[in-house]
Amino acid sequence: MAGSVEIDVGCGRGTFIARIAREKPAVSFIGIDINESNANQSQDRLSKEGLGNAIIVHDEVQKFLIRHVQHESLNAVHIYFPTPYMEAIRKANILGTGLNQRLIDQGFVNLLHTKCQPGGILRVVTGHRHYFQEIAVALTNSLFKETPWVNPIRSSSFSNLVGTGLEKKQRALGKDIYFLQAVA
Ligand SMILES: C[S@@+](CC[C@H](N)C(=O)[O-])C[C@H]1O[C@@H](n2cnc3c(N)ncnc32)[C@H](O)[C@@H]1O
Fold this sequence. Notes:
Blueprint: E1 5-9, H1 15-23, E2 28-33, H2 36-48, E3 54-58, H3 61-68, E4 74-80, H4 86-91, H5 106-115, E5 116-126, H6 129-140, E6 145-147, H7 165-172, E7 178-183
Parallel strand pairs: 1-2, 1-4, 2-3, 4-5
Antiparallel strand pairs: 5-7, 6-7
The chain binds S-adenosylmethionine.
S-adenosylmethionine is lined by residues 10-12, 32-35, 38, 60-61, 80-83, 92, 99, 103, 164-166.
């Protein structure tokens, strides 16, 4: 892929990747999801909308990054509402990945850093306070530097951070949302 490349880790049903691909036609997007049904729904959505600058991959993200993504090649990594619950993580283990812990730990953050270009952006949003604290510690102990989040969504009527299905649910329930941005 030539030019700027951004990835959406655990893209779910594709709400975010479809919107960002529409807003940034000059950027290439890759959505990755371990859940086949989610990956298929996301790809259908992109195809229906004719968004040729985005594709979906059905894979476990760490495997995908290690096997298919060159070092210092990503301009941005989006991780929105990563699965916090062990039961769901084990259920998602359909690719025989042996997943038995939360995705974002020190090793994963360090791996992401090797795949981001210098100046590449990492954004994380979650509704899970404890997971957020774990992620913040891993970032502090990495080569990423935390920076202020400036919302890229251009529409002034857009009041969400990223507008994913999970963000809408959390907001409807009046729950807290935690977010951070870091630069490689
Ligand atoms: C809680 S959902 C969030 C979906 C979407 N980002 C949102 O905000 O609505 C988490 C998604 O990450 C996917 N996922 C979890 N672990 C993953 C992994 N190791 N590799 C790829 N996808 C993963 C799940 O299948 C699920 O679709």
